[in-house]
Amino acid sequence: MSILEYNGAAMIAMAGKNCVGIAADRRLGMQAQTVSTNFQKVFPMGDKLYVGLAGLASDVQTLHQLLEYRLSLYELNEERKMSPQVFSTLLSNVLYSKRFGPYFIEPIVAGLDKDNKPVLSGSDLIGASVSTDDFVVSGTCTGNLFGMCETLYKPDMDPDQLFETLAQALLASVDRDALSGWGGVVHIITPTGVMTKELKGRQD
Fold first, then answer.
1. Full-prediction pTM beyond 0.90?
2. CA 40, CA 42: separation in Å to the nearest integer?
């Protein structure tokens, strides 16, 4: 088993029309043993910016704290909020700087730029990033997530449609993965605010 799969995770970010959503499961495990069913993997990094960290749980918390520090330092120096594109580059640089002893994390970034256009990006554990305009997935059941997203995704969804699509894709995917699941959380980022809803899933 890869160390990236040790704690289990399932994560999706998807673009809509002037909105973007990010969803993740809540399980923290030690391989097949469930330790917690309320583990946070998606973190707000700004009013219209979220990051999802899928991978080794200790590195999730360490990297989140480091990113908050770097984000605060940027805002103090620049006297402005960090855009999703800049944050994605920062995250890539942080991961690449540790490439010889990497954080075992495969992150995804979801946010709205200054024109309220969706910004999505994903990365591997050494910061090789990819940007997309539809959806990006990460975690232990990426095959399931890709299949569900390709089936359910439609361009220019409104926030309610985007929530429904993310919720159905996440729940259907984790049902066939032993290392992720136990419900989920969905954040829908719009120009006026963030809508967060919790999902109840199979508890086995």
1. yes
2. 6
